[in-house]
Amino acid sequence: MEPGAAMAAPSSSPAQTSSWRLRIFTLLALCLVDGTYTVLRRYSRGVLMETYSFNEVLLVAEFLKLAVAVHMIRGSMMKERIEEPLSKRLVELIMKSRKMLVLALLYGAGNSLSYVALRRIGAGTFVIIAQTKTLATALFSSLILRRQYSWPKWRALILLVAGVVLFVLPTIDEGPIDQNSNDYETMLGILLEIVVVMISGFCSIYFEKVIKSDHEQIGIWERNFQLACWSIPSYLMLIQLREPRPDGYFANWTPLAIVLSLFGCSGGLLVALTIKYGDSVLKTLAISGSIIYAALFDQAFLGGPLTFEMGVSASVVIIAICNYTFDLSPDSATKWPSSAGPSTSTATIQSGEAGMNTSTTKKHENY
């Protein structure tokens, strides 16, 4: 055997190739699902003028994620020939779900603050600040996970944020702002949205740390079950407080609302898979790419705007995503503890996923 061939083999092992393909697959799947989700929302609300409660759509998506997670947990237990009753295992997971309770509370706080902020600042300002979630996620990744990103990756992230901002600005209608708003109120709105951005970045890294350095050896489907258990009450409370409906729950629902619930469920599960096989920053890259995809689809079929400047900005975003994803500069990788239970998570995932957020969530993407 040639010496060079012997040395080249380890760098392209089947396991590494499979992991890389899975990472790219989840990245593209999240981009397509999230983009299609956005287009369908626009078609439903902006074209068909449907009046169902969108918080109810998110609530149904959480119930669907709960059902998928339970199904995957059951399949994993059968595969591993675990004799423990499923109900007992689910109760144990709920009793150990304090980490996901923290995450659900943070998501709820972020959603509430974003509503308050949007009443005080224009949509353009809101969107510009919101796009810095990518940088906030990378910052918390460096602080909490001790990752050291190369300069080309930081440059790609900054370029990505700038490209997305320039792309979405022509599509934004500022909309009404509170007439009593003054400079103080505007500054308060900006500060609140910055807090929302920081909460979003922290939540992404917190979830990644939990699923990758978990001493309790709880798999990713089990973590999604825990998160859904706490997210459902928060959405019920949100609907009750913000959207009291005299005609009852699920009024004015349409087949498209059901489809949106399915896409919301798929997007949330794919967020978790993207974080599992990649990292939280890759998740934000996929969502940024979905903005471009959604806008192009919107222009082609729904008559949305598409200018030369938007085309240039879209190219910048695509180049930035490629620069980050395929950058070969050596980074300081996070060393996860051996007790994190990778075998548990991997076995759970491999037991039959068809395509899994953040929210989480998407929930991840509600704010």
Automatic annotation (TrEMBL):
UniProtKB keywords: Membrane, Transmembrane, Transmembrane helix
Matches recorded under Pfam families: Nuc_sug_transp
GO MF annotation, one: pyrimidine nucleotide-sugar transmembrane transporter activity
Region annotation Disordered: where it falls in the sequence: 335-367
SUPFAM superfamilies xref list: Multidrug resistance efflux transporter EmrE (SSF103481)
Gene3D superfamilies: 1.10.3730.20
Transmembrane segments: 20-40, 100-118, 124-145, 154-172, 187-208, 220-241, 253-273, 285-302, 308-326
Low complexity bias spans: 337-348
Membrane listed as a keyword: yes
Superkingdom: Eukaryota
Keyword hit for Membrane: yes
Location(s), subcellular: Membrane
PANTHER family attached to this UniProt entry: NUCLEOTIDE-SUGAR TRANSMEMBRANE TRANSPORTER (PTHR10231)
This protein's name: EamA domain-containing protein
Organism: Trieres chinensis
